[in-house]
Design goal:
With 78 residues, the chain is of the alpha+beta class. Helices cover 15% and strands 37% of the residues. It has a 4-stranded antiparallel β-sheet with strand order 1-2-3-4, with no helix packed on it. A hairpin with a 4-residue loop joins β3 and β4. The longest helix is centred in the last third of the chain and has 12 residues. The protein is globular. The two termini are 18 Å apart.
Length: 78
């Protein structure tokens, strides 16, 4: 996956209702994009990888588990 822009774009959303606070980050890649959405109140993250090019999902899962060490993880492949 080849980044088309660096660094990635990130936006901090600071709502009056702190259950909606979070960060969204976006990286445009040649094959499509990668996005991450973090909700600080819920200690939750959603990572979306859209790609027209094949990639090894298990490698991505392993990387996320190593870097983030989540308590639990759900994977949805479409």
């Amino acid at each position: 996956m080849f980044p088309l822009i660096t660094p990635m774009s990130a936006y901090l959303y600071d709502a009056q209702d702190n259950t909606k606070n979070g960060i969204s980050a976006f990286l445009l890649i040649a094959e499509s994009h990668i996005a991450a959405h973090l909700w600080t109140h819920y200690k939750s993250i959603r990572i979306v990888i859209d790609s027209c090019k094949e990639f090894e999902l298990q490698k991505i899962i392993n990387f996320i588990q190593l870097q983030i060490e989540p308590d639990n993880m759900e994977v949805e492949e479409i």
